[in-house]
Amino acid sequence: LLSVSGPDPDKAESYLAAIDSVAAFHAIDVSQLQPELTFRRLQIAVIRNNPDAINRCVDQLRSMTGPYAEAADRLLFRRAQRLLEASPADAVAAREVVRFGVRVLDGLSADASSASTVRDGVAMAAAVLWDLEQDKAMRDLALSLDRAQDAAGVRTLSALRRHARLAESAGEIEEAGRVWSTLASSVDAASPAWFEARYEAMRLLSMIDLAKAREAMT
Fold first, then answer.
1. Measuring CA to CA, how many Å separate 28 from each of 14, 68, 102?
2. Which residues contact 92 (CB under 8 A, 6 or more apart)?
3. Measured in Å, how far apart are the chain's first and last C-alpha atoms?
4. Rounded mean pLDDT of 156-168?
5. Tens-place pLDDT, residues 54-70
6. Long-range contacts of 36-39 (CB under 8 A, 24+ apart)
7. What is the pLDDT of residue 62?
8. How many angstroms separate the CA atoms of 173 and 167, rounded?
9. Cβ proximity of 183 and 160 under 8 Å
10. Among 13, 27, 75, 138, fewest CB within 10 Å belongs to which?
11. Are 159 and 129 in contact (CB under 8 A)?
C-alpha cells in the first residue's frame, strides 16, 4: 500500500493498527518487526508531511540498526532535497539535506554508484548554508565533498563552479584557479562558460603571479 505510485496511508495505517491489536491480544512478540513497522509509520508521516511524527519515528529508528534505519535516512534525504528544490533559500531544508545526506554517505562505500550523487546533493546544500549564513563548517564540508568528487573524476559544470567559488572563499587561490582552468577545458572554446572560466582563472592568477596573468591575457 505504501509502495505503489498512489500510496494509501490511511489503509496502510489501519493494517499497522491491526498488527498491534493482534499482537497484543495473542501476546505475540513482534520486537523483531519493530524496525520495519517504524519505517512504515515514517513513510506514512512523510506522505502526510507530519514533522512531529517524522521526528518521533526518526528518534525510534536511530536506536535501531539495520536496513530500515538506513532506508529511513535515504527517504528523508530525498524528502529534504525536494523541499530545497522547491525553496532554494530554505536553510532548514538545506540542513536536513546535510543531516541525512551525511548519514547516507556514512553507509556507502566511496566508490558506490550512488555515492557521487549523494556527495553532490550534500555539497550543494552545505554551500547554500554558507551563502545564507556564512557557516564556515558547511563551507568546509562542501569543499571536502567537491574535492572528493574531483578525485573520483566526477566533474559537472555546477560542481566545478561551486568548488572554485568555495575554494577561493577559503583562501585556496591556487586550487580555485586550477578548478576554473579545468572547467574551461571541459566546455566549448569561446562559449560563455569558457569565457567565464578563463576570466576567473586569470583573475586568480593575477593574485599569485602578475606576469603569468598578463601572459595568459595576451
1. 19, 21, 37
2. none
3. 66
4. 97
5. 999 999 998 887 899 99
6. 36/68, 38/64, 38/68, 39/68, 39/71, 39/72
7. 86
8. 7
9. yes
10. 27
11. no
SS3 76: helix
- Is residue 122 a contact partner of residue 93, using CB atoms and an 8 Å limit? no
Give CA–CA dist 7/43, Å, rounded. 10
27-47 burial code (b ≥16 CB/10 A, e <16): eeeeeeeebebbbbbbbbbbe
Place of cell 518521533: 56
Residues in the chain: 218
pLDDT tens digit string along 16-59? 999 999 999 999 999 999 999 999 999 999 999 999 999 999 99
For cell 498512489, what's the residue?
A: 6
Other beta carbons less than 10 A from residue 164's beta carbon = 25
Rounded distance between C-alpha atoms, residue 186 and residue 183, angstroms: 5
Asked whether 196 and 184 are in contact (CB, 8 A), the reply is: no
Copy the grid coordinates of residue 83.
Answer: 523541499
